[in-house]
Every structure is written in structure tokens, then in C-alpha cells.
Amino acid sequence: xxxxxxxxxxxxxxxxxxxxxxxxxxxxxxxxxxxxxxxxxxxxxxxxxxxxxxxxxxxxxxxxxxxxxxxxx
Length: 73
Hints:
Blueprint: H1 2-6, H2 9-18, H3 29-39, H4 45-72
Helix pairs in contact: 2-4, 3-4
């Protein structure tokens, strides 16, 4: 995970807020796809890809924050 340590936190935050929430209107894709997942309607391959594509920055941000917390403890 050394590659994750080399990425500045601000870059990960910017990527999560832009790519992770795009498109912003009418609602963020990741929010829509999480709703579909909760409803059990996330079946089409494009929807699964969208969830992975727009969810990946949030997972990366979570990993980065965990790594920062571990290094400070």
C-alpha cells in the first residue's frame, strides 16, 4: 500500500468529490446506483460498471483515511 501513501490526501478528496459524485444533476450516480443496489434492481452490466466506476474513488478515500489513522497511532 505504499503507492497509496504517496498520493496526497487532497488529490484523493478532489477525485472522490468530482468523479465520485458526477453527474451532479439530477442526483449523483453513485447515490443512484447504491439505491438500486439496496432495492435489488442493480442488474444491468452498465449499472454495475457505473457503481464500480463512481464508487472506486470513495473506496480509495476510505483506504487513504484508514492508512493515515494507522500511521498516526
